[in-house]
Amino acid sequence: MKVLSIINLKGGVAKTISSVNMAHILATLHGRRVLLIDNDKQGNASKILNRHSYDKPGVAEIMTDRNIKTAAVIQHTDYARLDIITANMNLLKANLEVLLDQQRPQQTRFKRALAQVADSYDFCIIDNAPDINISTINALVASNDVMIPVTIDDFALDGLAELKEQIDNTREDLNPALRFCGCFVTQYDRTNEADQQGEEYLKALQDYPVFQTHIRRTGKIKPSTFAREPIIVYSSRCGASYDYKRLVEEYLKM
């Protein structure tokens, strides 16, 4: 099982949209067995896939339960080959509890939990909160790859240096196999000169490789979240649907 973390310290860059849609495309168009992990206390990935709940265990229990059975916290979605481990506000308390627990390792709880189901999936995609906390560190320790979605604006580079440093430190100290695959531009407006120049500027930065595929801005993304549907289900012909398909193909070719 290959584990991919989608992360950015900045909010509003389409981390959750990208995680859900990449997972859905891998499962439905590429026939891969995919586990999506909602690693954000807001639980938006869980909501998009209609699995948000306070009654069922999820990421919080993976972080805190000593003898967790990972299969017991996995839920099937409405889409073949796509499963999810959900999150809710309980994750906030769980992260604090982990930091107070000095009896067992704090950074490897995701890795240990995912090892139990590694043979059941081809890919695991982790949708991370816009933060560096103990559960996002767990995600990086458990991951093979990292991708960073960015939007082109005056604050596009905010937090990138700090996040890259965290990725490098995790690779050096805890996960030598961790690969930074690069950034990909979201909410791209091809009629906006600032977006065109901003993307070219990003591609010129040697520390931050950039995917060739960008995700175009479309009016279909926001209503797709209200409809609780992945974008290729809600609007298969919109620009973002084509772009996310291409992004997945580009990632698979790496």
Quick overview:
This protein has 254 residues and is α/β, with parallel strands linked by helices.
CATH architectural grouping: 3-Layer(aba) Sandwich
End-to-end separation in angstroms reads: 16 Å
What is the makeup of the main sheet?
A: 7 strands, mixed
Q: Which structural category do the helix and sheet elements fall into? A: alpha/beta
How many helices? The count is: 12
Strand order of the largest sheet: 3-4-2-5-1-6-7
Radius of gyration, in Å, reads 17 Å
State the total count of DSSP E strands: 7
Verbal overview:
The structure is a single chain. The chain is α/β, with parallel strands linked by helices. It has one domain: 3-Layer(aba) Sandwich (Rossmann fold), CATH 3.40.50. The chain contains 12 helices and 7 strands. It has helices spanning 15-28, 44-48, 59-64, 70-73, 90-100, 109-115, 134-142, 160-173, 193-204, 221-226, 231-234, 239-253; strands at 2-6, 34-39, 75-76, 82-85, 123-128, 145-151, 179-186. Strands 3-4-2-5-1-6-7 form a 7-stranded mixed β-sheet, sandwiched between helices. The longest helix has 15 residues, at 239-253. It is globular. The relative contact order is 0.19.
